[in-house]
């Protein structure tokens, strides 16, 4: 297979006929496949089924403090759940709050609180400070961008590099502009590129000196223990780095068990400085009497300790690693020689990021859709859904069964080739 960039017009036309014939073959199969959202598959979810039986008798429902988890009380979560998550996140239990079923929900609430009440320390609510701006490393997580968009927060895209966001830009812009109040970060196995921030990147975050005293880092550690291989990527602990420094209130870290136990029925966590946690608790106390403690105790009884969670995640990895490897081996074998696309080789997380020939991502997405394979919309990985190069697509290999991943990737390879050939023949 030749590099498309070296082919003559005639050769490109011949290749297009052959790829078109493949594409028609897939159309005739009337496929209905979904590689759009990062969802665990049925077998992954089944791994946690026994958790539902972890509390059956009334006595099972009491926390170690003697508190009846079926009743009201305890705003920040039961102590044994705080200890479990503190061990996983490598923080002290008094630096976190165990919350309800979704980390996205707490991120939304946190931004909303800062809009309405400010970040504390006598800082004015963001809504009273004129136009608010957030830095958005891109490609990134579309739902982070949706929070900003829905609240009228202007998003400034920051290029992603193989070591994390472009820190020169982050430092330059935050030092310059006091209207920049936040940055979204997925520091481990980022969504969608699978990038883990390097030690230097995390140290530069810890040393940031923004013009806005109420600038905050939203450290969404959604894939904190979601390694595909035994030797997971190491990530420096930002919260521990800033503890006791002038930056210690600048960081909020989030995680959840959505992709550990049950998406939508897990437990989430917010961690920060002790001062910030106290501040959040005063605001939370108005909103709720407490989160679902029965779910917390279920999680603790099921896992016992952090090692129990890690062992469970190895079972997840055994199920999804073959899916990632199927996609990657097909891309490496069938697409790489054409010289028209590049992709990431993540060692964890839920996504593979694919960059097709500039100007082709939307076309590839449409070709996929016509052939019955749903992908996340082209552009979704950029603020306002606008990918300036129209090049990035997010592949989510976890949800479809392994038997369908191969064919879905074949359709993808064919669509990427077809879109590139048409682009090259347009010139
Ligand atoms: C980076 C990131 N953060 C948060 C979430 C959602 O987490 P939760 O289910 O806890 O709301 C996802 C889900 O895909 C994600 O990729």
Low-confidence stretches: none
Number of continuous helical runs:
13
Sequence of strands across the biggest β-sheet: 2-9-8-7-6-3-4-5
Question: What's the oligomerization state?
Answer: single chain
By CATH, the architecture of the largest domain is named 3-Layer(aba) Sandwich
Shape: globular
So what's the CATH class of the largest domain?
Alpha Beta
CATH superfamily of the largest domain: Type I PLP-dependent aspartate aminotransferase-like (Major domain)
As a whole number of angstroms, the C-alpha radius of gyration is 23 Å
- Looking at the structure, the CATH topology of the largest domain is Aspartate Aminotransferase, domain 2
Coarse structural class: alpha/beta
Number of strands: 13
Main sheet makeup: 8 strands, mixed
Give the CA-CA distance, first to last residue.
22 Å
- List SSEs in N-to-C order: HEHHEHEHEEHEHEHEEHHHEEHEEH
- How much helicity do the residues have? 40-55%
Structure write-up:
With 427 residues, the chain is an alpha/beta fold. The protein contains 13 helices and 13 strands. It has two domains: 4-45 and 310-426, Aspartate Aminotransferase, domain 1; 62-304, Aspartate Aminotransferase, domain 2, CATH 3.40.640.10. It has helices at residues 9-27, 42-46, 79-89, 103-117, 142-151, 167-176, 199-206, 238-242, 274-287, 293-303, 306-335, 361-370, 402-426; strands at 33-35, 96-98, 133-138, 154-161, 164-165, 180-185, 216-220, 251-256, 268-271, 342-343, 352-355, 373-375, 392-395. The strands form three sheets. The protein has an eight-stranded mixed sheet with strand order 2-9-8-7-6-3-4-5, with helices on both faces. Strand 10 (342-343) and strand 11 (352-355) form a beta hairpin. It is globular. 48% of the residues are buried. It binds pyridoxal-5'-phosphate. The site of pyridoxal-5'-phosphate has 13 residues, from helix 4. Residues 38, 102-104, 141, 186, 191, 220, 222, 256, 258, 263, 268 line the site of pyridoxal-5'-phosphate.
